[in-house]
Amino acid sequence: MSCAPRAKKALEKLDGVQQVEVDFKSKKATVAMKEGKTLTKKQVEDALEEEGFEVGSFEEKSAKSSDSEDGHSHESTEGNDSGVSCWKCEQGHIQGHKGKKGECAQCGKALQKTECPEDSAFEDLKNETCPLMDDEVVEGAWIIYDGKKIHFCCEGCDKDFMEDPEKYLKQMKEGKKDSGNKESDKNKNDKHEHKHHHKH
Question: Are 68 and 32 in contact (CB under 8 A)?
Answer without folding.
Answer: yes
